[in-house]
Design goal:
Radius of gyration: 20 Å
Number of strands: 0
Order of helices and strands: HHHHHH
Strand content: under 5%
Oligomer: single chain
Distance between the termini: 66 Å
Shape: globular
Helix content: over 70%
Largest sheet: none
Number of helices: 6
Length: 162
């Protein structure tokens, strides 16, 4: 029989779920569209709901495990990853202004996967193509948001024949 323990998974999961619930409440404060649709609140709600679900899953995983969720070696390697993601996020925003959304998102997707240990060249190539394509489809085609165009070069100009 597995002993239920309070470990890092249960604490992180509970914290994530609570943060998600607070974010759900905050998302409901966003005004709906004039026609009564979900409008601008749909993405914050989906993201907040995902945080709640992932937090509950993590908490259940921690409760069903008697071993510590992470080893001290793994915990020590998290700070460089966090710092790398911070630097990457700033570089991503800057690069988006110079090379446009598609190229900068493809580069950022690959670098994020590499930060978390993905080294498969085929997987990285697929991420470089699929991530920007899916995000472009959702935000700029389906939602009609205007994409940020690049100052130096923009792949959308080539694709659209401009």
């Amino acid at each position: 029989m597995t002993t239920r323990v309070l470990n890092s998974s249960t604490v992180i999961g509970a914290g994530l779920a609570i943060f998600g619930l607070v974010a759900v409440a905050a998302s409901m404060a966003i005004n709906p569209d004039p026609d009564g649709g979900w409008g601008a609140r749909i993405f914050p709600l989906v993201g907040s709901g995902a945080l709640v679900v992932l937090g509950v899953v993590e908490c259940v995983k921690g409760l069903s495990s008697s071993a510590p969720a992470t080893t001290p070696k793994e915990e020590g390697s998290i700070l460089p990853r966090i710092f790398s993601l911070l630097v990457l996020s700033l570089a991503y925003v800057w690069l988006m202004g110079k090379l446009g959304y598609l190229i900068s998102t493809g580069i950022a997707a690959v670098l994020v996967l590499m930060i978390f240990g993905v080294r498969n060249p085929i997987g990285l190539l697929i991420a470089a193509i699929v991530c920007p394509a899916i995000y472009h489809l959702i935000f700029f085609v389906m939602l009609g948001v205007y994409p940020p165009y690049g100052e130096w070069f923009d792949l959308l100009d080539v694709i659209q024949g401009n």
